[in-house]
Specification:
InterPro entries: Pectin_lyas_fold, Pectin_lyase_fold/virulence. The protein has 383 residues and is mainly beta. It is 9% helix and 30% strand. The chain has one domain. The strands form 4 sheets. Strands 2-3-6-9-12-15-18-21-24-27-30 form an 11-stranded parallel sheet, with helices on one face. A 10-stranded parallel sheet has the order 4-7-10-13-16-19-22-25-28-31, with helices on one face. The protein has a 9-stranded parallel sheet with strand order 5-8-11-14-17-20-23-26-29, with no helix packed on it.
Length: 383
């Protein structure tokens, strides 16, 4: 299925650039990746991951906060370690002015996966962006951050403009960002976005459960606008795209040791061709690289990985495990992993396909987790 209107929709088709233009209107002119969708089913026991080393604890905190006003003040302090105690539930409703700004080298922490489920930040109303920072050295760890809509819907079928439904938890345009041991759900635009067209950034996203971010036209777990990113030991499910990358020259990511659950809205890992997103670009350029390995893809109705053009550096999908995808069999089983509008610098090798492949992949991840100081958990989702 292409990037046009979803099957069965009676709404007027909206082009990719129209979606991006609406997004730019709510993000100060910074574009976000865009493409369209279809939904799917399969049941499986979630497999998530935690690590105990390197975790932030309450004793490390410079600020302990339990109110929204205290949180806002603490986040404005450069170098602060801000602790939200387990059981805290902060509601950021319409009365709260957003986005909340985060100063340089701030850590926001709770104890998800350590001594409890962690503090929760709930945003029941649509806010274009909840937390925003142009600074570097920020870490978000051990929190649950839940947005306004966990169900799939198409904003073009609604009476209000599509942009009025866009909600994003975090926007980072600085470098050296770490997101770990968080649960991020309910974000119609993206749970987290990184970088701008002019600003390549770097991030490390690990040991999270990122799910139910599935609105049509956007619906990203991670929106990688620019820069180089490492994505590992995460559980993804019920996302339109678990990871979407924009396609700039310095835009690339490595995804390893992840599990993508069975409830696909569209293909899980994505790298756009830059010309899909920017009018003044032509040609096949699709980022710097896309490298995926040792990842389980349980989706059964859509592709696992789609590279939409030609990357600048060698890219690959290797040593991963994919369920069979009956809807794509006519294109050959490796159409589960696709390169479109490009015919080079992309290797697909040593992957395992079929109904039993993902069980083998889960066993491999459980066996090798300890080598990476990681533990497996059977139920990473609580929302």
């Amino acid at each position: 299925m292409g990037d046009g209107e979803p099957a069965g929709s009676s709404t007027v088709s909206q082009t990719r650039r129209e979606v991006l233009a609406l997004t730019a209107g709510i993000t100060g002119g910074v574009f976000s990746s865009g493409c369209l969708s279809i939904a799917g089913v399969k049941q499986s026991e979630p497999l998530g991951f935690i690590a105990r080393g390197g975790r932030v604890r309450r004793a490390d905190a410079t600020h302990v906060v339990e109110t929204v006003s205290d949180l806002r003040g603490a986040l404005s302090t450069p170098g602060a370690t801000v602790w939200l105690p387990n059981g805290t539930d902060l509601r950021l409703d319409d009365s709260v002015s957003m986005p909340l700004s985060i100063a340089a080298n701030v850590t926001i922490a709770s104890d998800r996966g350590l001594d409890g489920p962690g503090a929760q930040i709930t945003v029941p109303a649509t806010a274009p962006t909840v937390f925003r920072s142009p600074e570097s050295g920020i870490r978000v760890t051990g929190l649950r951050v839940v947005g306004p809509e966990t169900e799939y819907f198409d904003p073009r079928s609604k009476s209000r403009p599509a942009s009025s439904y866009y909600a994003r938890a975090f926007e980072f345009t600085g470098d050296d960002i770490e997101i770990d041991h968080c649960e991020l759900a309910g974000w119609t635009h993206a749970a987290v976005s990184f970088g701008t067209g002019e600003t390549p950034t770097g991030s490390h996203v690990h040991h999270n459960a990122i799910h139910h971010n599935q609105m049509d036209t956007l619906g990203y777990g991670l929106d990688l606008r620019n820069g180089i990113h490492l994505i590992e030991w995460n559980y993804f499910d019920y996302n339109r795209h678990a990871v979407a990358a924009f396609g700039h020259r310095e835009n690339g990511y490595e995804a390893r040791f992840n599990v993508v659950g069975p409830h696909a809205v569209r293909h899980a890992f994505d790298m756009h061709r830059l010309s899909q997103n920017l009018d003044d670009h032509t040609g096949p350029l699709a980022g710097k690289y896309l490298r995926v390995h040792h990842t389980v893809f349980e989706t059964t109705n859509s592709a696992a990985v789609v590279l939409r053009g030609e990357p600048r550096a060698n890219s690959w999908v290797r040593d991963s495990w994919c369920e069979a995808v009956p809807l794509l069999e006519r294109h050959g089983r490796e159409s589960i992993i696709q390169q479109s509008r490009g015919n080079g610098r992309f290797q697909v090798e040593n992957n395992d396909f079929g109904p039993r492949a993902t069980d083998r992949g889960r066993k491999w991840l459980r066996k090798h987790a300890a080598e990476h100081e990681t533990e497996t958990v059977s139920d990473p989702l609580s929302v």
